[in-house]
Amino acid sequence: MGEINTIVARAKFSDLVNRAAFGKERVVLTRRGKPIAVVVSLDDLEELQRLEDEEDARLGRTALEQWQVEGRPTTPWVTIKAENGL
Q1: With a threshold of 0.85, does the pTM exceed it?
Q2: Close Cβ partners of 29 (under 8 Å, ≥ 6 residues apart)
Q3: Do 32 and 53 fall into the same domain?
């Protein structure tokens, strides 16, 4: 994974985008020597989002199982939406 200062990155923006999009390279943007952001391909972003969704689903299942073990009632989504004006 390459690193580049934000000032240099500004001047080489098109190159950075191409490196990420077509070269599948992850480029760390730095400011005053500290990493502040990363330029990644759309494939990388989609994979990160997929992993986050899987983790959210796992946590939701775990929470539901815990509620059921404790014998606590659940509230239907329709009720929650109505109560919150959604």
Answers
A1: no
A2: 3, 4, 5, 6, 9, 35, 36, 37, 38, 39
A3: no
Residues of the domain holding 20: 2-40
Same domain flag for 47 and 69: yes
User: In the structure encoding, which two tokens stand for residue 76, read together?
Assistant: 């239907």
d(CA 36, CA 40): 13
How does pLDDT run across 42-79, given as a tens digit for each residue?
999 999 999 999 999 999 999 889 988 988 887 889 99
CATH number for the domain that contains residue 7: 3.40.1620.10
Which position has the token pair 């730095």? 30
Clarify whether residues 79 and 47 are in a common domain.
yes
Q: pLDDT of 4-52, one tens digit each?
A: 999 999 999 999 999 999 999 999 999 999 999 999 999 999 999 999 9
